[in-house]
What we know:
Oligomer: single chain
Number of domains: 1
Distance between the termini: 73 Å
Number of helices: 6
Order of helices and strands: HHHHHH
Number of strands: 0
Helix content: 55-70%
Shape: globular
Amino acid sequence: MTSFLRLATLATVLALGATAQAQSPAPAAPPPPAEAAQPLVDLYSAEDAQATLDARLVALKTVIRLTPEQEKLWLPVEEAIRQAAKNAAGRAADRAEAEPAQDFLDVLERLAGAEAARAADLNSVIAALKPLVATLSVEQKRRIPAFLDMTDHAGRPQPTLELWIFEAEQE
């Protein structure tokens, strides 16, 4: 008899569950995919990047505290940094438009190309900096590395992408 009661109870529970299931509304359909999902707010525009670069150049110049004679050597440095930043942004835009890499060799070739381009840009900045740095005091020279985000990697080379000059490429 107890087996019959258990079986009857189980049948009742299952029947009630099925009835409740049949009466519950169907789940809502997922929203249709957006045609082109655009962020509600563009968090960092090209104008923002330009304003940031302008501010950093003014700040770098302020940190160095150039004398009137050193000031005459600043323009080529600023132009070289601006060109390097512009080139970095161009590489980022090209990378965003590029077809996906087909294999690891494509990835390595792209890395090599980007590193070579950054090296060329960095060499242009160095060439522009040399005349200015030759006139700086020890104190002025000491302030520059930290401001450029240069860090000590225990004897290992610092990746160029860590320098704010190339930050546009990090996107």
